[in-house]
Every structure is written in C-alpha cells, then in structure tokens.
Amino acid sequence: MAAIELEGLTKDYGEVRANDGITFAVERGEVFGYLGPNGAGKTTTIRTVLGLLSPTAGTVRLLGRDVTDEAQLLEAKRRLGYLPDDPAFDETATGREILDLHASLKGDERSAALLELFDPPLDREIREYSRGNVQKLGLVTTFMHDPDLVILDEPTSGLDPLLQQRFNEFVRAEREAGLTVFFSSHILSEVRKLCDRVGIIRDGRLVTVEPVESLLNRSGKFVRLHADEPIPIRSLEVDGVHGLESNGGAGPGDGTEYVFTFTGDINALLAAIREYRLVDLSIEEAPLEDVFMRFYGGNATDAPTATEQTTAGTDRGGSGDV
Ligand SMILES: Nc1ncnc2c1ncn2[C@@H]1O[C@H](COP(=O)(O)OP(=O)(O)OP(=O)(O)O)[C@@H](O)[C@H]1O
C-alpha cells in the first residue's frame, strides 16, 4: 500500500481549475518532492490529500484510507505529521503551550530531541515569533508524535541556511529510519539534495514523475572548454551538444571559450576536439534548472541543434528557484 495515492485528482475553485486529473503515488519509505512554481497547484493537492478540501473529481487515499470518509481520514491523521506553508498557531499562546496542546492531541514521543535541533523560544508568545521561529515550532509539532508520514508545504521557507542544512540532515536521517516524506518546494537545490523522486506540476497538471537521478541523467553534462585558438563550430557539431555558445572572440564563432550541455558519448566529444590545443576543460553535472527550462521554458523534446544555438543567448538560470 502506497503512503499517498492520487487517482485523477481534479480540484476547481469556481472557474479556476487548480488541479487537473493528477495521478501519482508516494511509496512508503521514500522522500517525494512536489515541485512547481508559485500558483502551479501544489498547496491545492496537499490540502486535498489532508481532507481540508474535497476533490471536484478523482480519488485520494492517505495511508490507505479514503480522505473523503471522515472516520478513515481521522484514522490516517493519527500517523501523519503536517507542516502547512504558513503555520497558524494561536497568537496569544506561548510556544510551550502549543507543544503541550499538540502533545495532548497527538502524543509526544520526541519533542526533547527535536528541540535540540530546532529551538524556538518556548516561553515567548507566538505573536512575538519571527517567521523562522514559527517554522521551527512547526517542525517540532510536525514530528513530535513520531508519525509514519509527513507532508511538508515549502518546509524551509523562513529558515536560515544553517537551519536549512540541519533540516536536510534531519530528513535524510528520518528517511533512513523508514519515514515517508512528501514535500512541496519551488527550490530546486533543496529537492535535489533530499528527494528520491520528484513530481513536477505546471498549471495544475502533472508534467512528470521520475527519480531525481533520471532527471539528472537526461539533463546531461554541462561542458565548458577553453582552447588557445578558435575551434570551428562544425567540429563541435557532435551528437548530444545542445545550447552551444562561444565567448571571447570578436564575433560569433571565433571565440576560444565554449559552453554547452552535452547528452551524448563523452568519448565522441573528446575525439572531435582532439586536434585542438585546450587550455582548460570542465565537465559537470548539468544544473537541474536546465531540466526545468525544458518543462517551463519551451518544448522539452525540441532541443535546438548546436548550430542553431551558436549565437543564441543562454536560458541557464542561476538562482536555484523555478
Ligand atoms: N481559495 C481559492 N480560490 C480561488 N482560487 C484559488 C484558491 N486557492 C488557490 N487558488 C488558485 O489555484 C491555483 C493553484 O494555487 P495553489 O495555492 O495550489 O498553488 P501553489 O503551487 O501551492 O502555489 P504557491 O507555491 O504560491 O503556494 C492558483 O491559480 C491560485 O490562484
């Protein structure tokens, strides 16, 4: 039995179709990243999975239970931890009171250990909390009853880089211990570090579900080479060269530095440039942003050839966000 199963999930808000026939399953023991830009429909899926919204069409099962059945939903929620995108705690309560309330409702197997990692100021009232402290308290309440499955909506928003790293290490350790994690994000680097598989949503539709590794393999390598004299473009027209750009010369094609994405056989590439004297060569894993550009920035199956791209600008983003 999968931890979460969606079958043809459709959700309309009046005229707006926020989720359109979404089908996928989150398997037990995996970390599944749900990726998409703002407004793609991630929160809508999560709120439907939690039974907070009812589907317009389709079915949703959470830990094997039908979320539209009140009793079954309650059963599933006992073994679930949920961190909303904007946790709303009672503003007049202190952090400690929130934890006590949560312990009485769902149990408390591990808040002491969690508070060593994420340490919100427990004696302060929530209205005095910063965004980061709210997020830390949210993480403690999500995990303190030792759930089997956690659903996290943009979990690292508001956390500083040190805490983000601590969160990543924590999630990896939890996964090793058998926890299932479903989390949404628009931050590619986060997903890459944590996930086994990703689902990508765009305009309410699922674009792909696949292992992070296969996304990376398909995205190929990022190659940067520097020769001590211009390399004729035809020498670089090797199968698998995409987005070729040359820099450093007076005009297109007469520079001595070349960058491109490469999805072909690296030996064929090396053979093609063997006769030229190189000053430098680097071959790195392509940024996940490149893969996303295929989903969001154009036709994924219609990659331009090397010559078409020789003078074109790059669409490689550097921010790490979708
Ligand atoms: N209550 C609502 N009423 C009407 N439209 C809504 C409502 N909630 C969301 N929407 C619309 O549904 C679409 C999907 O929104 P959703 O919040 O699920 O996206 P998201 O991927 O979670 O975005 P974000 O990353 O910004 O949280 C958007 O077009 C949004 O404007």
Would you summarize the structure shown here?
By secondary structure, this protein is an alpha/beta fold.
Molecular structure report:
This protein has eleven helices and 14 strands. It has about 325 residues and is α/β, with parallel strands linked by helices. It folds into two domains: about 210 residues, Rossmann fold (3-Layer(aba) Sandwich), CATH 3.40.50; about 90 residues, Alpha-Beta Plaits. The protein binds adenosine-5'-triphosphate. This is ABC transporter-related protein. InterPro entries: AAA+_ATPase, ABC_transporter-like_ATP-bd, ABC_transporter_ATP-binding, P-loop_NTPase. Belongs to the ABC transporter superfamily.
Query: Strand-residue fraction?
Result: 25-35%
CATH superfamily of the largest domain: P-loop containing nucleotide triphosphate hydrolases
Helix content: 25-40%
> What is the count of helical runs?
11
Q: How many beta-strand elements?
A: 14
Largest sheet: 6 strands, mixed
- What is the CATH domain class of the largest domain? Alpha Beta
Oligomer: single chain
Across the major sheet, the strand order is: 6-7-8-3-9-10
Pfam family, one: ABC_tran
GO molecular function: ATP binding; ATP hydrolysis activity
Protein name: ABC transporter-related protein
Keywords: ATP-binding, Nucleotide-binding, Transport
